[in-house]
Amino acid sequence: RCNASAALGGRVVRGVRSYPTERSLLLGTVKIAGATVPYVSHAEAVPFLGIPISFNLGWGPTVTKALDIAKTRGRQIERSLASPTQALRMIQTVIKPAVAYLMCVAPFGPADLDTLDACIARTVRKCWKLPRGMPTRAILAGAEEGGVGLESLRVDLAHETSAALTRALRDQGRLGLVT
Predict the structure, then answer these.
(1) Please, what's the b/e burial string for 133-166 (b: 16 or more CB within 10 A of its CB; e: otherwise)?
(2) What number of CA atoms fall less than 13 Å from residue 126's CA on the CB side?
(3) I want to staple 39 with a disulfide (CB 3.0 to 4.6 A). Which of 21, 26, 156, 167 is the partner?
(4) pLDDT in tens, 80-137
(5) Does pTM top 0.90 for this prediction?
(6) Sign of the torsion angle spanned by Cα atoms 89, 82, 75, 72
């Protein structure tokens, strides 16, 4: 039990037990190496190795970050003076690996992948000066099929998840043990 006037912001409530919330207990009380550790609620996302993770395992912030990466880096490539071929190479070496890094942790659904593919295709349309109505599937088609030759993120997802599974199974430590 705590002091009712302190927990309720100075208001005194008679006959009511007032227990402190997690936030009031932790605000400014935990210190590591002299620095105060901020309180984070279970719904807030915390970056861990560059990947936003929330304690309730909601993957929305991770998908949002992937979309933000695709949009911001796509705009930077659009504004550059790169040729269309150079822009395509930058998309394949800058945007797709950054998004694929997030795919190792968060479960990206088909709708999320379609949204990310559409965002990347929008960048390709602007860099290659293609019409706005050109379908994303046509952009993601191979060059021999009349497309630009950019693979879908579904291929990257399959590659990343199979590579992570293979690494886990081949691990010599306890990660590789199958029970």
Answers:
(1) eeebeebbbeeeeebbebebbeebbeebeeeeee
(2) 16
(3) 26
(4) 999 999 999 999 999 999 999 998 888 899 999 999 999 999 999 999 999 999 999 9
(5) no
(6) positive
